[in-house]
Amino acid sequence: MKIAIVGTRGIPNRYGGFERFAEQISSRFVDQGHEVTVYCRRAFVRPDDVYDRRVRRVIVPSLHQKHLDTWVSTLFAAVRVAFSDNDVVLLCNVANSPFAYIPRLFGKPVVLNVDGLDRKREKWKGLGAQVLHFCEWMSSFSSTRLVTDARAIHDYYLAKYGSESTVIGYGSEMPAGDDSLNGFNLESGRYVLYVSRLEPENNPDLVLRSWRNVRSDWPLVVVGDNPYDRDYIERMKSLGDERVRFTGAIYGDGYWALQKHAGVFVFACEIGGVHPALIEAMAANNAVLYLDTPENAETAGDAGVKYEKSEEDLAAKLQALLDDPAARQQLASRAKQRADALYRWDAIAEKYEKLFEELIRSRNERPPGKRLQ
């Protein structure tokens, strides 16, 4: 098959979950003999990028501005892919649902991965939230097939819109490569790790306030950035004490080294389906604390300790884990086993392949003249 991946910022990953998804899934598709094209935003790629060169990149214009960046780049990509020879389009992000019709008008099946409920994010207020609500509604019918990455999101779409979706999760595996902590000045197994874009719905303030009440000489390492709101980052830094280290966004070997060597991983995101950082922490053999939401509980199961959205509960459960090395080891082992069983990239890619094959077969069996797939 000739597969196009549209709607992410591109490869290599310099932003978040969808970019990691595009990076990993495209290589798996190529491994199976498919031709893959990833459409990338100009602001997020460089000539000397290191990525899987078997994957073709197409660079499209974009506006590096929060409200228009996604739509402008995806519009250009959707038009280009409509006139390409690709067999199927994997479209990422619920905000891109209005553009699913463009390739479909040219006979190309479109699979839309909506991720979570983006309209609930704090950064989208007023008109922005209303537009995303409209996109969410459109996503229930604009693509050939809707993909949700968690059963909780599947059930939401079914109950609210009567729209069935295919549940395909997210992948995570420890890559081969340098996993040393050189340059971080950290001791293996003796720091708490938090990874996320620094945005309100990811609750970095909850973690930082809770940490003030934890008695430990371990550092709290905060990995993440917010390219659209620098003031928010400064507010978060003001909440940290001398034990907190803000690293900014880190990718590649450095990121995986921090995951592998952490003593405890704290996950505080409350919007979305399967979160990459959570299952990557599990794959890295971490003891995991996670905010109690249906999606997070579905992801981690009994392989982590859940906490309520309160400083007192998080601080108490952090303290208990820090004081109990045996519990940390047991949790880490369960997390690794669950990640290996449920979140392997090869298995995720295989599910997408089967879905693509089904849609292409269905298109080819349709009577001539019926172009919209």
Tell me the radius of gyration.
Answer: 21 Å
Point out poorly predicted stretches. Answer: none
How much of the polypeptide forms β-strand, as a percent range? 15-25%
Task: Determine the fraction of residues in helical runs and give it as a percent range.
Answer: 40-55%
- State the CATH architecture of the largest domain: 3-Layer(aba) Sandwich
Question: What's the quick description here?
Answer:
The chain is of the alpha/beta class and 373 residues long.
Keyword list:
373 residues, alpha/beta, Rossmann fold, 2 domains, 7-stranded parallel sheet, 6-stranded parallel sheet, 13 helices, 13 strands, 15% strand
Please characterize this protein's 3D structure:
With 373 residues, the protein is of the alpha/beta class. The chain folds into two domains: 192 residues, Rossmann fold; 151 residues, Glycogen Phosphorylase B (Rossmann fold). 40% of the residues lie in helices and 15% in strands. The protein has a seven-stranded parallel beta sheet with strand order 3-2-1-4-5-6-7, with helices on both faces. Strands 10-9-8-11-12-13 form a six-stranded parallel beta sheet, with helices on both faces. Strand 12, helix 10 and strand 13 form a beta-alpha-beta unit. It starts with a strand and ends in an 8-residue tail after the last helix.
